[in-house]
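thread: overnight batch results

M.L. [08:02]
morning all. the overnight job finished for the chain we discussed friday. pasting input first so we're all looking at the same thing
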Amino acid sequence: MKINVFIVSIATTSILTACAGGGASEPKVPVAIPTAQPIANIKLSDESSAIKTINTLSGKGGSLHEAELEVKTPWGTSYPDKQYVYQTPSGNYYNISSYSDPIIPSYSSPSYNLRTRHEGQPLSEGGKLFVCCSNSGQSAYVPVTKQNHLKFGAWISSDGTADLFVGGKPVGTVKDATAEQNTAKGKTTYEVWAVRVRNGNIVTSTYDPGKSSGSSEKTAPKLSLLTANFNTNKLGGTILGNADYGPDVVMKDVGINGVDFSGTAESDGKNGKVEGKFFGQFNSSYETEVSIGGKVTFDADKSLDTVFGGVENSSDRNTTDTSLTPVSQ
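M.L. [08:03]
and the structure it wrote out:
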C-alpha cells in the first residue's frame, strides 16, 4: 500500500519593524509546525535494506529506511516516489518532511549562513525529530543540504532521551553504481554540518557557504572541512563550533578502510571515538556523487556527542600528496 504525503514548503520569512511605533523580533519558526503522525501500512522499497544507520544510541536508537510513497502536490495531482523515512525506537515510521527540515535562507538572503538552533517537528508519540534534509528542504545555494543518498539529524524522546543518527546507502550499494570507493585515489575535501543535543536543544555546527551575487555583493564562506586522503587512507579536519553547538571537534587519528572510516577525535579537551561511512555513488566520472557521514561519541561527556553529514567541496584525484590539507577549489 502506498502512503499519501502532502508536500508543504517552509519559506524563510523576515519580520520588519512596525511603522507605527514598537518593533518585532524574528520568531523561532515562521509558521506553526504540526505534530507528525506515524505512517500506517508502510511499504518499504526494494532498496531499503541497503540503507545503513549509524547512531549514538547504538542498538537502542532509531533507523533510516526508504519507503514507497504517493506524493500529493498542492495542485491536486500526485506521483509515486521513493523517500527516506525515520523509524523511532518504538517502531513508528515518520516522514522526513519540510517540517522536520532546517530552515534554509532564501536566494535573496544576504548570507546563506545556517541557523545553529532548531525546533524539530513534534511527534504524536511524544518527542521531536530534526533531519537534514527532505527533498523539499534541499537548496543549491546551501550545498550541504543536497543529500540524495544520506540523511542525518536528531530524535528526542518524550522523556528527553536523545539519539543522533546518520545513514544512507553506502558507496557500492546505490543502484547502477559501477565502482567501489576503494578505487579512489588522490584527495577529496568535504564541507560538513554537524548536529548535537545540548541542554535539550537541537543545535548545529557553523556552516556558512558564503554568497556571491555579482561584484557588488560577496561574503566569504566559513565551513567545517574534512579531507579524505586516499593515498594514505587517512581522514582529518575540524568541525567548527559556536555558542549553541559548543566546542570544535578535531579529527585526530582516523583511518579509511574501503567505504568505512574510524578512529579518534577531540573536543573540549576530551577524547572521542569516530565511526562513519562514504555514502552514494562513486564512478570515477562526472556521475560521482559521494557524501560523507559519521558520528563522534565521548564517554566522558555525552553532551559533546555529534553526528555529521557532508558533500564534496573540492577534489584532486591525481595528486600524490600525503597531507590532510584541504584541497584548494
